[in-house]
Amino acid sequence: MTNPFTSDEQQRIVNAIRQAEKATSGEIRVHVEPHCANNDPVQRAIEVFARLGMHQTKDQNGVLFYLAHVDRKFAVVGDKGIDAKVPADFWESTKELLRTHFAAGNYVEGLSQGIERAGQQLKHYFPYAKDDTNELADDISFD
């Protein structure tokens, strides 16, 4: 396991996840590894999504931010529930936001802003209900 983030940076990312999830039943995870196993970040993100059990959310509204930091590859994938509701350009425009920050080496800021953006969409389409539970851990997973 290699971790490119300091403990303060990790906390910023986890805080962004918690803040984004406050107003929604949606779930957001961040997964970081040095290398993209099969060289296809979207396919790898789908594999990690399944391994983390993200498809088990009640409303199928999980969003995964995947980063292979050494290979400089990343992907953002969402489950069926959220994918069916967000605007057609949402995933691509979110990737552009990340790409802009990542190109400048600002991984924490890029992830934080991307998470906030996903949280806004989740809040809009899957507002928080009183009986909501945090279905998935907020911490960053590493390989």
From TrEMBL:
The UniProt entry, under Gene3D superfamilies, shows: 3.10.310.50
Q: Which domain of life is it from?
A: Bacteria
Domain (TPM): residue spans on this chain: 5-120
Q: What is this protein called?
A: TPM domain-containing protein
Q: What organism is this sequence from?
A: Spirosoma soli
